[in-house]
């Protein structure tokens, strides 16, 4: 097995890329300063966002390659392992990286909001592809952070650095919203495939043998990460993926309710519920009536 390069600190990652450490918890890294390198597997103990400018090695996470090309951003949360491969024996890294440790943002509004930046958990084929103007915005944010790192440290430094990281991440949220709309080819048919997946699932014996379909299961069947899939469905329908699944389930339940001689408990088990009362509770939450009341009223 190939050796894993583990970077627990920002200074270790700076040294690997031949960049000076200006702050122990955050760095804007010019990848072109790094020495030519070959295949590596890397693990980060901090958040890392990489901007790739030109073809200079392919990123792989797990068993698949990122949808990753010139002018692309990829996001890594602490603990993730990424492989960097090239068709050449050695390649010269190009681009920039923003690395920041969780200790930098503890106690700040950014720390409380990090879970909202779901793209740190996106998987393969889900990188952020930038327009030229968007790339300029990203580089402007990086420049502001680097300016603060090169500035003499004072009582304002941390706040300004963290604020600019938050600004950068908020721009990335906007850019991803744009990408969900404009990358029709990549996202085309996912909603239709999701609908077909649910129809096939509830039309099989999987609910009785496996249980209710989860967002993670549906995302996996569609070859997407759960967060990317959830965000995409939210943008397309205005509802969360879980709400979409529940709506499908309730619509099927309404049909089953009118099948002669079928009890509520039988319907619940057929849909994948372990306990009929859980089905009754969900049905009343979504419909405003219990299954028996709905049957009687209709």
UniProtKB/TrEMBL annotation:
GO terms for molecular function: DNA-binding transcription factor activity; sequence-specific DNA binding. InterPro entries: Homeodomain-like_sf (IPR009057), HTH_AraC (IPR018060), Tscrpt_reg_AraC-type_HTH (IPR020449). It comes from the Bacteria. Pfam families: HTH_18. Keywords: DNA-binding, Transcription, Transcription regulation. SUPFAM superfamilies: Homeodomain-like. Residues 192-297 form the HTH araC/xylS-type domain. This is Transcriptional regulator. It comes from Niastella vici.
């Amino acid at each position: 097995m190939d050796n894993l390069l583990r970077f627990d600190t920002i200074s270790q990652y700076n040294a690997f890329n031949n960049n000076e450490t200006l702050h122990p918890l955050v760095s804007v890294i010019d990848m072109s300063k790094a020495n030519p390198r070959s295949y590596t597997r890397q693990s980060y103990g901090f958040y890392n966002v990489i901007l790739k400018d030109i073809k200079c090695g392919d990123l792989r996470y797990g068993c698949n390659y990122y949808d990753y090309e010139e002018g692309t951003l990829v996001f890594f949360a602490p603990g993730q392992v990424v492989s960097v491969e090239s068709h050449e024996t050695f390649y010269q890294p190009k681009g920039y990286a923003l690395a920041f440790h969780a200790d930098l943002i503890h106690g700040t509004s950014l720390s409380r909001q990090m879970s909202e930046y779901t793209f740190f958990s996106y998987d393969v084929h889900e990188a952020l592809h930038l327009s030229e103007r968007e790339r300029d915005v990203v580089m402007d944010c990086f420049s502001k952070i680097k300016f603060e790192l090169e500035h003499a440290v004072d009582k304002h430094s941390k706040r300004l650095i963290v604020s600019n990281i938050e600004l950068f991440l908020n721009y990335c949220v906007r850019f991803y919203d744009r990408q969900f709309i404009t990358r029709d080819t990549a996202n085309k048919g996912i909603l239709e495939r999701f609908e077909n997946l649910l129809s096939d699932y509830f039309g099989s014996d999987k609910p009785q043998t496996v249980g209710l379909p989860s967002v993670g299961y549906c995302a996996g069947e569609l070859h997407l990460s759960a967060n990317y899939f959830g965000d995409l469905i939210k943008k397309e329908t205005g509802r969360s993926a879980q709400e979409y699944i529940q709506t499908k389930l309730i619509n099927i339940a309404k049909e089953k309710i009118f099948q002669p001689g079928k009890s509520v408990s039988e319907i619940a088990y057929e849909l994948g519920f372990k306990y009929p009362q859980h089905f009754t509770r969900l049905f009343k939450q979504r419909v405003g009536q219990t299954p028996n009341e709905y049957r009687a009223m209709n």
